[in-house]
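Person: I keep going back and forth on a fold encoding question. Show me how you would write down a chain together with its backbone fold. Please set it down just below, with no commentary around it:
Helper:
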Amino acid sequence: MTEVEVMDIIREALFTLMKVVTPILLVALLIGLIVGIFQALTQIQEMTLAFVPKILCVFLTLIVLFPFIFNQMKTLSDNLFERIVGGG
C-alpha cells in the first residue's frame, strides 16, 4: 500500500465522518441557541433546562438519521474491504 492510497483512505474516512456528524451537531447547536434565547428572555437560569432538550433532540436525530448513518458507514466499510481484497 502506497502513501497515496493511505491518504485517500484517511480522506474518505474523514469525509464520511463529517457527513455523519454534521447534522447531529447542527441540531444540538440550533436547540442550544433556542434554549439560550428562551433563557435570556425569561431570565430562567436553570442548568438542566439547557441540557435536557439538547439530549432529547440529539437522541431523536440519531434515531431519524440512523438509516443514513448506517448507509454511509456501510459504504465506507465496503470500499475498504474491496481495497483489501483487491490489493491482496
